[in-house]
């Protein structure tokens, strides 16, 4: 099977209130990715636009975005899988290129969450769960993740402090990321003293809503060579899985089956294992989500996540650096743009272009991007 | 011409919970049972599958399915929970409250903690699901002490 490369990456700053429209927001990531790849629009065969539509007044946003980017008459496809929409978009783009239908595909993720209030946004996000059987009880995303935090702490005797250590790490690197929403230092005492949101999670355990966009350009091996791409990053493994939406139908409250399965698929396709990963971006919408990812991806055995963070093994100098761009906890989480931002970080790492957060000579990087409360799981393995 | 009158839609599910996001479903009898004080699931007699939340359709048996209601009885073990300090739009009046999953053995229920003081809730405790009337004619079920 021929290979598919990522040949361009771009990302807007992630901010609390973007002073522009969604098409203008998408443009920022597009422009950076096109310059990065050194392409012109006629070299883009198709676009995949990724977001969660309930934040926009615009119906079918792909249309106005590709119009604004000058990408007519190429076809455009819209994908949505909640918070992992843009890694789902990557899988679609990979398939379009691998099938031979298109030589190159652009994946644009975006979200402008600031036009509604935080309570409205919680209500909409809560409706990303089971609206018939769960939402009438008054659910919201932090409370769902909190149920996994409670389940995890009980199962393994871990502490709220273990979760807080993940936020401290995120803040260490968030300070270095000019495109992150949250750039202040955070210490352990601050995390533990923060206002409760949904027990056992507190304010510092939660990422912030944000406005942002991301753009990833993929191409066939042939085109990457023909266009003289200096440092193509290859898509080595792709895994995707789903789990029941309703928590009543889940087996475990201390792991995400969809992440475990997506990881298994991605490792199998790449022909490598967790020990071969040199740098990872995991979906830390809440501190507990990063803890579960350590174990679901095999970076630690079940129950071994707390030891990994206590020993700082997931710091830049550790055995498996995770979210050294500050993660969602620092960057903020503009739903549709998040997966693309994670992919961009790993691409820059593999090219040796990650600046202050560059890990030493990575060969393989991994992206773990989840939709909803472990409903959808995407794992992507990239390599040089 | 007598003019056939459009049959009135069964919108009972609009009564479920503080705010319902669904009005019409093929399992609207769930609300009827709740109003009689019963929390009910369904089972497919053809294959033996048990459904909670209840379903009127069975993906294993499709057109051969025979769906019947059963009453959720006895107690279960609290699998996990969370106490909310903030609520989504429409639920602010309910604070503070806790959402939870109760493991009944063969199936689980997603719902709310009932009469247990929130500082005494513990994973593993035995609780019983019961129908619970809410203001404004709404109804749900909660997990109470046995």
Per-chain topology:
The complex is a heterodimer of chains A (384) and B (146).
Chain A: E1 4-11, H1 22-37, E2 46-50, H2 62-68, E3 76-79, H3 85-98, E4 104-112, H4 118-126, H5 141-156, H6 160-174, H7 188-193, E5 196-198, E6 201-202, E7 211-220, H8 221-226, E8 233-242, H9 257-270, E9 279-281, H10 287-296, H11 305-310, H12 327-331, H13 338-351, E10 364-371, E11 376-383
Chain B: H1 29-35, E1 40-44, E2 50-51, E3 67-71, E4 76-84, E5 97-103, E6 108-113, E7 126-133, E8 139-145
Compact overview of the structure:
The complex is a heterodimer of chains A (384) and B (146). By secondary structure, chain A is of the alpha/beta class.
How is this structure best described in words?
The complex is a heterodimer of chains A (384) and B (146). Chain A has 384 residues and is α/β, with parallel strands linked by helices. Chain A is built from 13 helices and 11 strands. Chain B has one helix spanning 29-35, and strands at 40-44, 50-51, 67-71, 76-84, 97-103, 108-113, 126-133, 139-145. In chain B, a hairpin with a 4-residue loop joins strand 5 and strand 6 (108-113). Chain B is globular and about 50 Å long. Chain B starts with 28 loop residues before the first helix and ends with a strand. Classes of the chains: A alpha/beta (384), B mainly beta (146). Chains A and B meet through helix 4, helix 5 and strand 5 of A and strand 4, strand 5 and strand 6 of B.
């Amino acid at each position: 099977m021929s290979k598919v490369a990522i040949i361009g990456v771009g990302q807007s700053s992630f901010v609390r209130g973007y002073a522009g429209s969604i098409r203008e927001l998408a443009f920022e990531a597009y422009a950076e990715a096109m310059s990065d790849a050194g392409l012109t629009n006629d070299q883009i065969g198709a676009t995949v636009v990724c977001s969660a539509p309930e934040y926009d007044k615009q119906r079918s946003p792909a249309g106005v975005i590709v119009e604004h980017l000058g990408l007519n008459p190429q076809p455009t496809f819209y994908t949505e899988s909640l918070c992992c929409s843009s890694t789902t978009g990557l899988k679609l783009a990979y398939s379009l290129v691998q099938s031979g239908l298109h030589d190159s595909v652009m994946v644009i993720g975006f979200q402008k969450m600031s036009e509604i209030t935080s309570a409205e946004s919680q209500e909409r996000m809560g409706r990303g769960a089971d609206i018939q059987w769960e939402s009438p009880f008054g659910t919201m995303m932090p409370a769902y993740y909190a149920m996994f935090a409670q389940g995890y702490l009980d199962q393994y005797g871990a502490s709220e402090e273990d979760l807080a250590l993940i936020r401290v790490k995120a803040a260490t690197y968030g300070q270095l990321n000019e495109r992150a929403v949250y750039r202040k230092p955070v210490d352990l005492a601050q995390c533990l003293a923060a206002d409760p949101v949904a027990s056992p999670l507190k304010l510092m355990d939660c990422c912030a809503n944000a406005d942002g966009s991301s753009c990833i350009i993929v191409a066939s091996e042939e085109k990457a060579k023909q266009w003289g791409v200096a440092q193509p990053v290859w898509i080595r493994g792709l895994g995707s899985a789903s789990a029941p939406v309703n928590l009543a139908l889940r087996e475990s409250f201390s792991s995400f089956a969809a992440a475990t399965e997506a990881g298994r698929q991605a490792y199998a396709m790449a022909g490598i294992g967790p020990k071969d990963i040199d740098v990872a971006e995991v979906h830390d919408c809440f501190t507990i989500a990063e803890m579960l990812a350590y174990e679901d991806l095999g970076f630690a055995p079940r129950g071994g996540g707390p030891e990994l963070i206590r020993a700082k093994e997931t710091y830049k100098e550790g055995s498996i650096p995770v979210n050294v761009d500050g993660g969602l906890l620092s960057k903020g989480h503009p739903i549709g743009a998040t997966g693309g931002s994670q992919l961009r970080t790993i691409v820059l790492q593999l090219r040796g272009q990650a600046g202050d957060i560059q890990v030493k000579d990575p060969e393989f990087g991994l992206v773990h991007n989840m939709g909803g409360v472990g409903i959808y799981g995407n794992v992507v393995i990239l390599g040089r | 011409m007598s003019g056939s009158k459009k049959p009135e839609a069964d919108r009972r599910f609009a009564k479920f919970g503080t705010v319902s996001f669904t009005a019409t479903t093929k399992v609207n009898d769930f609300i009827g049972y709740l109003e009689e004080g019963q929390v009910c699931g369904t089972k497919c007699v053809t294959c033996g599958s048990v459904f909670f939340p209840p379903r009127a359709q069975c993906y294993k048996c499709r057109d051969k399915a025979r769906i019947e209601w059963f009453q959720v009885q006895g107690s279960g073990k609290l699998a996990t929970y969370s106490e909310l300090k903030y609520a989504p739009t429409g639920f602010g009046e309910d604070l503070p409250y806790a959402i939870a999953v109760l493991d009944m053995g063969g199936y689980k229920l997603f719902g709310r903690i009932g009469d247990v003081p929130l500082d005494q809730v513990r994973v593993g405790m035995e609780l019983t699901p019961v129908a619970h009337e809410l203001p404004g004619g709404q109804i749900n079920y909660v997990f109470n002490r046995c």
